[in-house]
Every structure is written in C-alpha cells, then in structure tokens.
Design brief:
534 residues; 11 helices; globular
Length: 534
Amino acid sequence: MNATSDGHRPAREATRTDRLLAALGGLLAAYVSLAVADLVASRVRPGASPVAAVGGAFVDRTPAALKDWAIRTFGEDDKAVLQLGILLVLALLAVGTGLLALRRHALGSAAVGAFGVLGALAAVTRPDSESAVDAVPSLVGAALGALLLYVLIGRLLAPRAGTGTAAARADRRSFLVVAASTGLAATGAAALGRAVDSPAEENATASRAAVRLPRPASPAPPVPAGARLAVPGISPFTTPNRDFYRVDTALVVPKVDANRWRLRLHGTGVREELTLTLRDLMARRAVERDITLACVSNEVGGPYVGNARWLGVPLADLLREAGVRPPSGGGPADQLVARSVDGMTIGTPVEDVMDGRDALLAFGMNGEPLPFEHGFPVRMVVPGLYGYVSACKWIESIELTTFDAYDAYWVPRGWAAEAPVKTQSRIDTPRPFGRPAAGTVMVAGVAWAQHRGVRRVEVRVDDGPWREARLAAEDTRDTWRQWTYAWEAVPGRHTLTVRATDGTGATQPERRTATMPDGAQGRHSVVVTVEGGE
C-alpha cells in the first residue's frame, strides 16, 4: 500500500484481525462508558447509573409472570441476574458498534452517544429522579466511550507513516496500548465508584446512625418460653435482620436522609392533611409488636416469610387524626395508596388498617432503626396481608382513594387488588433429598396464618394417616408458630407432607396453586431417603 503525498497511508482494507480488534474496541468503549457513568453517578445519585435506570425501566415493563418466574428461579438474586442480562445485551450491542465503526468510523461513535442519550432519558424519567442532573452520568460516560472508540478505530485504520505488515503491526500495537491503559483506568474508576457513597448516601447513612429509637409506650408482650423450639435446622422464631427476606423492584436500594424525609397524608375523606417528619413520628405513642410478614411470590414451602419485632406508630391513629373514617363507618375512601420514594405504589384496604389490628408505620426492626434494605426511615407493616398490598418500604406519602379510582403498581400487572395471607406451613428439617439415619427423626418447621392464628399442624408419612405435630406456644395470632413431629423413620425412600389448620378451622387444601394472582396455596412436602438397617 502506497503512502499519500502527506506521508500517511490511506485507510486499508480491514482484515479478520482488524475486525476482532474492532469488536474488542466496542466492548472497551462500552466498559469505559459504564465505569465512568457509575463513578459520576456515585457523586450524583446511584440510581442515575445507566444500568440501574434502564434496568428499572425494564422491570416496570416486564410481564408479571416473567417477574414471578425470576423470583422463583433466582430468589433474591433476581436483580443481580437482571443486571447481568442487561450487561450481556450491552456487550453484544457493543461488539456490533465496534464493527460498525470499522466500516463507518464516525457512525460507530455516534451509536455509542445514542446509547448514552437513551440511558439519560431512562434516568430522568424514573419516578425517583429529582432533577435533570440525573442525565449527567449517562451522557458523560457515553461521551468518553464514543471518543475512545473513535480513537481506537482511528489507530486501527489511520496508522502512522509506513507501509506493509510492519506498519499494520505498529497500528495494532498502538491500539492495544491505548486499549490496555484505558481499560485499567476504567477499572479503577469503576472500583472507586463502588467504594464511595454519594453525598446524599453519606448523609442518609449518618442520619440513620443518629437515630435513637424511642421506648415503646406499648411494648411487645414477652415471647412465651415455649414459643422457641430448640431443634437443629428449624427457622428461628425471630428472623435476624440480615436473614429477613427482601423482594422488591429496587435495583439500587434507596438511601433516604432521615433529616429530609417527610410523610404526607392526604386524599379523599381526609379532613386535615398531615405532613410529618421522622422526629414527629417518633415523638408519638410508639407501639412494639412481633409480626410475621410474607411475600405473595412465596411458593408453597418457599423462603419469603419472616418474623420480626417492629417498632412504630399505629397507622389507624394517624388516619383518625386526619379525619379518615373506614368504609364501615361511612368513609368515602376504601383504599389507602402508599407511595415509596422510588415510585412504587401499594394499595391497602382502609377497613383492614382501621379494624383494630396492629397496622404500623414502623421505624424500628428487631431493636434497631430499619435497615436501608427494609425501608429506612419508615415502612408500613400490616399483619394478615401480603407485602405487595401492605408493606410499602421507603414510604413518603399516603393517599386515601378508592379501588375503583386507582390501581396500585401490581394490579395492572395481573395481581389481585386485595390479598389476605393464606394459611401455610413448611418443613424446615429434614431438608429435601436429605438422608437421615433410621430411628427417631425430628421433623420440624413453621406454620403461619397471620391475623387468624394457627390452631393445628399435622404431618403425614407417604400415604399414611395424618399425625398431629407438637405446636410451639403461640406468641400472637400475627406471628408464625414452630412445630415438631418425632418420626420413627424406617429405611427407604419416604415423602413427608405437612398441613396446617388456622384459627377459623380452615385447613390447607391439598391442591397446589400458583402464586398469581393472590398467593400460592397447597401442602408442602419433602422427599428423603432414610439410611440404616440390614
């Protein structure tokens, strides 16, 4: 290939190696874009990161059946899997962008910029976006990524003076030097972005550390001595905060500054609107209660249920103070819509909140301020209802309305507007496909029917008769109960099944149903192989 009059070679025909390097350049440009965007987002707002913003938009538009499948399949790792999927899609697009840049140099870089614009639009249109500044991380990241791709492809196709194979090798070495140094810098930027909190997060963390929970005016009754069974493998009566299940749509956990947080109570039938700070709430009569929460996505025998000691103020008291009457008392509103700082809306029957149960605006969990993952500074807790119709985390407003007038987040996605918790029981030990030794085997687990209580638990071995299990003492009808059954196990393969009867006398049905639209039902069973004998 001959040099031009200005001493530079014209662009040469791309080889297979060039295409591989161009694909690598596209991947590196995308990596730099995301790393820089994450670093900038760490100083602006973590939720403004393009992966978080685009992922949040994807979650909002995902069919409910697909979300339910993701929770069943991946559990609490569903968000990590979603983010990995987004990164894989971006990687494929990045490869295509690099190859496009090899053929149309400037167009490839423009494509990177276009992805940045999409990320910026996703960020500023998220419900928790507060300003156009949320667009900055995506735009800055995309600008640097586009520039890098332009430079890399330029090194590949517009080499230094020289001709032939030696010049091509020099071009590629130059490409790799730029790519390697940029990749290292981007890795450092990504690590820095994940290591530091944004100023808003730092303020939120400091505000939580400064919270001193009030002493409850109405402490939780002492847990009966017989409510906690010492059986290896059984779920503890009180679920530690670190082990409490978390199911929500937040790809980035909101960190709310308690000093800036406000709760607004308004809507139909509200005589006097209320706006409260955390200090206002904690100055009121505080109530402490043990309450079991369950997720509607929990399959039969699933893990999305836990029991904690909650501290907060009775929600019904606030509603009455604002002049709200339940429908049974002539009130015009039958739905309470709680709104989270991330835009989630959860609809709860007003009648259930005001019927005397311990519906709380909680700010304490197991003796400490709510963890960020569980709704700090304040969340709703309503015993007897699945979380998606009661347990709004990071709550910032409560609006009184009607079910006819408004569908909360999950209803248009195929879930029922009202969803009392179904009676359930679970075998914790022995584990599925366990291999216990012949002899006395302790079968144990938990059963729950919040706000109805658990009256009886029975266990069946294979197709034998139902045998009554030993129930732990009841704390309250709003908490789960542990149970045990001493099984004289003989060698062989066996199926253990459990069923519970609630306080109304209703027993779990045998037939299993799906979680949609208002929670799974059916009996949990495990298969084990008993070892021993001749």
